[in-house]
Amino acid sequence: MKKINDRERTYLFMTLPILALFFCFNTLPLIKGVIYSFTNFKGYGSYDWVGLRNYTDLFQDARVGRSYLFTVKLAVTSTVVVNVLSLILALGLSSKIKFKSALRGMYFIPNILGALVVGYIFNYFFTYILPAMTKTTSMLASTRWAWVAIVVVCAWQSVAMNTIIYISGIQTVPEEVYEAGSIDGATGWFKFRNLTFPLIMPFFTINMVLCMKNFLMVFDQIMALTKGGPAQSTESISYLIYNNGMAGGQFGFQSANAVVFFVLIVALSVAQTKFGSSKEEQL
Amino acid sequence: MKKAYKAERVSWPVTILLILGLITVIFPLYMALVIALKQPSEMTNSIAGLLSLPKSFSLDNFREAMRVTDFWRSLLNSFLITFINLVISIALHSVIGYVVGRNRGSSKFYGFVYLYIISGMFVPFAILMMPLVKQTAQIGIANMAGVICCYVVFYMPMNMMLYSGYLVNIPLSLEEAARVEGAGTWKTYWSIIFPIMKPMHATVAVLTALGTWNDVMTPLVIMSGSGMNTLPLAQMTFQTQFGTNYNLAFASYLLALLPILIFYLFCQKQILNGVVNGAVK
Predict the structure, then answer these.
(1) A246 and B279: CB-CB below 8 Å?
(2) What ranges do the domains of chain A cover?
(3) Which of A125, A157, A113, A221 is nearest to B34 (CA)?
(4) DSSP B173
(5) Is the Cβ of B239 closer than 8 Å to some Cβ of chain A?
(6) Which residue segments constitute the domains of chain B, with CATH numbers given?
């Protein structure tokens, strides 16, 4: 009996400091964030309780509304674009080709590069190279097209990651499935639609969740490409919280925004995981 | 070897298409390199002028960019943050992964600890950002130490999940054998479990290092007042100050990308494995 107690004490001794650290840098700031969201704190000086006013203001604030619309539009478009492209790429890279590992290695490069610097490089491309090619004005200066440029940069990096995950998914499909399929005459699209895709469904779910979450939190690309402009048309939620909360004196108000954003992320993650797991096929 | 006979022939159309597709990957990097090697006087507004190779080969821009951005200092800071965070993360996250993984089936408390830490995955940085800035300033760690503390906590949910998932493959009998021989819990952990989890250490190291090396937001909000820069942060200050000298800027951007590219060149296999393991688990 004594021995077990010793072990349990050691376990507790290992766990508690780590838990304390986690609490201090995750739960505590989260709680503080929620508390700030009920105040008119500017980030400095004194502040008062304002109850739910930040939240009611939030739903009437046009700028906040636009940033949610923009972020969701960006996240959904990018997720679709990225998943379609990376599925095609993964199928190509999994087929019988020359230089397979070299090609896979090369296609992964965008993912290891820092999003901010990549954004700066593309900023130049959209500002100078593309207009010179197409004889138009810069996409980044247009309220209608700037978001497309951001989708392109997000996709350029994320396709690499998702492709690798799809490749590993395709590798899990046993050869026999294709052999059995080919006896029944399954080829091309039919083979993909009815054999490959259902079997890599779990990987599709992973990629959807990864993509959506990453794109909803998009920040670096906005910082590097548009800084929220032109005319605040590309302000992502994270960027708005950073910009107005840290420098714009809206600490309390943007805390309320962050709380709503947090709820959105949680709801979405739960929904996606539920939806995905109900559609998975077991072999 | 029967498979080899049945294997389809190499598909050249797909190979060629894939090689052509690589242009989309290489073009931005090529563009950055050409511009970084040129002088402002060589830049014209036509595409040919922008994308042609430089007339003379000179590394002046790189030398100047290194001086202006204090490259070595930023590189050292980025390296220190990444490295110290890695050491602490691997040590702490493997311990919590082990304790929670071994006990959450039998103990309500550890079941709760598991869910509690995992729930941290859903907390976006945006909501922690502003309180963390206040908090780190109050306790005097609005610097690299604060950034490292944040990273250790931010990566804990994922890493704990990876470690405790991996633990399922390690038979309990190993630990019991050590215990029978009189080894304490700590000793059993360090001498038996920790070395066995080596493949998972590699995965955790790759994922954590890639994430922290390229991260902008955490150092931006927490250590921007400390006068210190990480490699990405240096690019940001550089952009606002010298943003119009594109030749210099691109030299600086390339320098910022170079360390991770070199690292990737040598550890490509480990990185790819790590990323896949981390995402799929």
Answers:
(1) no
(2) 55-279
(3) A125
(4) H
(5) yes
(6) 10-58 (no CATH), 64-280 (1.10.3720.10)
Q: Which of B18, B95, B208, B277 to mutate to test the interface with A (most CBs of A within 10 A)?
A: B18
| Type of residue at A136 | T
Is domain A55-279 given the CATH code 1.10.3720.10 in the classification? yes
Burial string for B79-118 (b: 16+ CB within 10 Å, else e) reads eebbebbbebbbebbbbbbbbbbbbbeeeeebeebbebbb
The two tokens of residue A129 are 């190279």
Q: Name the residue facing B103 among A11, A98, A113 (closest C-beta).
A: A11
Predicted TM-score (pTM) of the model is 0.88
3-state secondary structure of B182: coil
> Tens digit of pLDDT per residue, chain A (283 long)?
455 677 888 888 889 999 999 999 999 999 999 999 999 888 778 888 888 888 999 899 999 999 999 999 999 999 999 999 999 999 999 888 888 889 999 999 999 999 999 999 999 899 888 888 887 888 888 888 899 999 999 999 999 999 999 998 888 888 888 778 878 777 777 778 878 888 888 888 888 888 888 899 999 999 999 988 788 889 999 999 999 988 888 889 999 999 999 999 888 888 877 776 665 554 4
